[in-house]
Design a protein that fits this description.
single chain, 429 residues, alpha+beta, eight-stranded mixed beta sheet, three-stranded antiparallel beta sheet, 18 strands, 20% strand
């Protein structure tokens, strides 16, 4: 959501910023609608003042016995009342049109967000670790002998259709252990507050974080009107929805482990094998609520929290800044962390950390009182810390051995009861 006053003050700058996302100028349409709305509000207020003035005269005419004047004024008041109601209705309709238009526009990228059309134009920030070398041809996760018994796509397809999986035995336990390891690390070492939230939310919550109105096809809605969350970003960020908080409350850093649900609209034919792209998956999500002057530094802090999980697991990764053409609609700058997958011989996204400034806060009307004074909008950030299923894939592929077993990261051993290996038969030992 954008500040209409800022658009009025500098429309050219607004259009120029949006052009970096490949959008044509929109301010002529915005300002025309805004001017019409403001004129309608002014006319309604003028008519309301005339109505109030005439209403005061009605009593005088009645008291003086001037029946003709009384009737004339009464008719005038009735006409003005109808006129005011019509203008107020039109103003509300115009206001709704303007809000809908503004809500469909993406956030403005930072000046130092790289320009580009797609992922090929993303800019690498840094790399960590060295991809492992194998004296055999590494396999993808779903091909590993150790995994085949515990990762069942056929049964999942019978139960639910494509892009689902049933995990069992050792694979299921590793998956669970990874989520617990992430949560414990973020809460004990990174200072995040563990939070458990619903996965069904009201429609206005999806509007608050920007999934609606433009991206509804990417999510699922129930018959009762609830939406299944595509990420815990929706619930964690909306904790401050329609709230004025005290400055001492900030920064607020949340973390939650939840099921996530995505329709994967537009991804037909992409990553159809294995667990990379599922309709239902688990993620450990981080959300920060900050003061405006702190949000940029918070992005670096959040990125480091996500990278720290991979460092502990001994996985090679790289961090990139997304270009304007690849960045999500709500972000001003995004850091993607991509983990090395030997089975695909490439890096794949495992976390995305974004700073939104006040874009979501305006949609949610989330504010704070700096110094106890006039309320201002907070800034919001979100990031994966990490996608649990994709971390499972990385652990399995990077730890694969020539005999079909998987050597598990040392950092994960305490969460597995001291077990260190997934045997070729799928047993944890």
């Amino acid at each position: 959501m954008h500040d209409i006053r800022a658009i009025r003050e500098n429309p050219d700058a607004f259009d120029k910023a949006l052009s970096r996302r490949g959008l044509s100028p929109v301010t002529p349409e915005i300002l025309a609608l805004d001017e019409k709305r403001r004129a309608c509000i002014h006319a309604a207020e003028t008519a309301q003042a005339d109505q109030n003035a005439s209403s005061k005269e009605i009593g005088k005419a009645k008291a003086s016995g001037d029946e003709a004047e009384f009737e004339r004024l009464r008719a005038l008041v009735a006409d003005k009342k109808a006129e005011v109601a019509a203008m107020q209705t039109e103003a509300k309709e115009l206001d709704a049109q303007l809000n809908d238009l503004l809500m469909r526009l993406p956030n403005l990228p930072y000046d130092d967000t790289p320009d580009g059309a797609d992922e090929a134009d993303n800019v690498e920030l840094r790399t960590h670790g060295t991809p492992p070398e194998f004296d055999f041809q590494p396999l993808e996760h779903f091909e590993l002998p150790a995994v085949k018994q515990g990762m069942d796509f056929e049964t999942a397809a019978k139960l639910s259709g494509s892009r689902f999986v049933v995990l069992s035995a050792g694979v299921a336990r590793i998956h669970r252990a990874l989520a617990q390891f992430m949560l414990d690390t973020h809460t004990t070492e990174n200072g995040l507050t563990e939070t458990w939230t619903p996965v069904l939310v009201k429609e206005e919550m999806m509007y608050g974080t920007g999934q609606l109105p433009k991206f509804g096809e990417d999510s699922y809605q129930t018959r009762e009107g609830w939406w299944l969350v595509p990420t815990a970003e929706v619930t964690l960020t909306n904790i401050v929805n329609d709230t004025i908080i005290e400055e001492s409350y900030l920064p607020r850093r949340f973390v939650a482990h939840t099921q996530c649900f995505r329709s994967e609209a537009g991804s037909a034919g992409r990553d159809t094998s294995g667990m990379l792209r599922q309709h239902q998956f688990e993620k450990v999500e981080m959300v920060s609520i900050t003061k405006p002057e702190d949000s940029r530094a918070e992005l670096d802090r959040m990125t480091d929290c996500a990278e720290g999980i991979l460092r502990k697991l001994g996985l090679a990764f790289r961090t990139v800044v997304l270009c304007t053409g690849d960045m999500g609609a709500g972000a001003r700058r995004t850091h993607d962390i991509e983990v090395w997958l030997p089975g695909q011989n490439t890096y794949r996204e495992i976390s995305s950390c974004s700073v939104c400034d006040d874009y979501q806060a305006r949609r949610m009307n989330a504010r704070y009182r700096p110094g106890g004074g006039k309320p201002e909008f907070v800034h919001t950030l979100n990031g994966s810390g990490l996608a649990v299923g994709r971390t499972l894939i990385a652990v399995l592929e990077n730890g694969q051995q020539a005999d079909g077993s998987v050597k598990l990261p040392e950092a994960l051993h305490p969460w597995l009861g001291g077990k260190t290996t997934l045997t070729a038969e799928g047993q944890l030992i």
